[in-house]
Structure formats: C-alpha cells, structure tokens
Amino acid sequence: MNPLDFKMKIDKCNKYWLGDLLKIDYKDHFGIDLLGKDFGIEIKNRLIGHGGPWAVTTRQIDTYPKLNPKKKLFFAFILYNLNTSIDDLNEEDNLESHVTERTIWFRNWSWILDKPRSYVKTGPYVYINKKIFSQSTD
Questions:
Q1: pLDDT by residue (tens digit) across 28-64?
Q2: Where are the beta strands (DSSP E) in 58-98?
Q3: Which residues in 54-89 are b (16+ Cβ under 10 Å) and which e?
Q4: Is pLDDT larger for residue 131 or for residue 80?
Q5: Is the Cα dihedral 132, 2, 8, 20 positive or negative?
Q6: Residue 11: which of 43, 53, 36 has the closest Cα?
Q7: Counting C-beta atoms within 10 Å of the first and last residue's C-beta, which end of the chain has fewer, N or C?
Q8: What percent of the chain has a predicted confidence (pLDDT) above 70?
Q9: How much of the chain, in percent, has pLDDT values that exceed 90?
Q10: Is residue 37 classed as helix, strand or coil in its secondary structure?
Q11: Distance between CA atoms of 41 and 31, rounded to whole angstroms?
C-alpha cells in the first residue's frame, strides 16, 4: 500500500478503535479527533519500530482549547504493531484485522504546554519522543 494512503487509513482505524473503546463519537469534527460531551481527545499514533517522534502542531495545541473551552482535553499517544508489512497491504484490506497490538498513553492537554517548540520549515511543532513514556510515571 502507498505509505500516504496507509497513514490516512491507519489514523482512521485507530480513531475508530479508540472511539469504540471509550464510547466516544468519532464522526468527523473540525480539528480534534474524538469529541464527547465533556471531553475531547487528539490522537497521535506510530507503528512500533518506525517513524520518529510524534509531531504535534502548535496550531492544534493553541486552537483546540479555544474551540472547546468547556471540555477537558487530552492527547492519546498510540504505538501499534501489524502482522504484515505496509508494502504487503492492499487498498481493500481491513486494517483493523492486521493490527496485532496497541499501547496507549493519555496526557492532559496542559502536559504539552511546557514542551519546547521547534520552528521548522513546515510550521512550528512540539515533538514528543516515544522514550519519554518509558521514563515517566506522570
């Protein structure tokens, strides 16, 4: 499967999985991935062993609380694994049937506010390294 197509499909797959798990509406909302009555969750995911840190745009960090002022907001950082390579997947494949494991960490929105911002060519980001979760208990 084309990696860009895979990224869009696995993002949706993980969004539906987490929405079902937490019984939260996963219909398309402007911005935040999952939006319940009292809270919202922005999802960042990576395939285990692939990719660098999670990139969170500062636009999301700054805008989503303004758009959802009465809701408690969270980040969900997901690592997942597949039973096959991305190259061996077909467009028609049900990705959920190929996901073999997921690990998820939730953080309050305020957790990210003191993280350093990187001003790169594609826009400012906060990069969250996966190692931070193995070293952190908060």
A1: 666 889 998 899 999 999 999 887 899 999 999 999 9
A2: 72-82
A3: bebeeebbeebbeebeebebbbbbbbbebeeebeeb
A4: 80
A5: negative
A6: 43
A7: C
A8: 93
A9: 72
A10: coil
A11: 10
Strands 118-120 and 72-82 come out as unpaired
Tokens of 75: 């980040």
| Token pair belonging to 98 | 């190929």
CA distance 73 to 109: 5
Encode pLDDT of 96-122 as tens digits: 999 999 999 999 999 999 999 999 998
Tokens of 114: 């003191």
The values of phi and psi at residue 50, to 5°, are -130, 155
The token pair that represents 40 in the structure block: 């919202």
